[in-house]
Write a structure and sequence with these properties.
Elements: E1 5-8, E2 28-32, E3 41-44, E4 52-55, H1 60-144
Antiparallel strand pairs: 1-2, 2-3, 3-4
């Protein structure tokens, strides 16, 4: 079995830069052309050909950052929706407050109207009683005479 690989640079890829554990130089990326692993990516030390590490996934930092950005965008959208709902609720509450104030104002005028009506009814009853008592006294007086 023969194995060959192509050497490329890792610029433009979305993988975290890796460094050789032996010499601490930035690793280069090679692409496997073997029959067993065609197209598989490996990191290789530019000085020491003995060190190689397979690349299986993009950097977890980049993936986590993307997921965090998506979560943040979703949270921002939810918060904006909540703010809109709260603003709508505040508007409704303000409308209800104005309605309650109008009703209270009408209630005050209705109370004064009810007082006047009650006073008129009491006066009317008093007048009726006075007239009735004069009539009844007159009838009694005629009978006695």
């Amino acid at each position: 079995m023969t194995s060959s690989s192509t050497v490329t640079s890792n610029e433009g890829l979305r993988y975290r830069n890796m460094h050789c554990p032996i010499c601490s130089k930035r690793a280069i990326i090679i692409v496997s052309e073997s029959e067993q692993n065609p197209g598989k990516l490996y990191c290789k030390c530019p000085k020491d050909p003995m060190w190689m590490a397979p690349i299986t996934l993009p950097s977890s930092e980049i993936t986590n950052e993307r997921m965090d950005v998506r979560r943040i965008e979703d949270n921002v959208q939810r918060i904006e929706d909540n703010v809109r709902q709260i603003e709508d609720n505040v508007r409704r509450i303000e409308e209800l407050c104005t309605v309650v104030q109008r009703v209270e104002a009408k209630e005050g005028s209705m109370k004064s109207n009810m007082f006047v009506i009650t006073l008129v009814v009491v006066m009317l009853i008093f007048v009726i009683l006075v007239k009735w008592s004069y009539k009844s006294n007159g009838v009694v007086m005629k009978l006695v005479l």
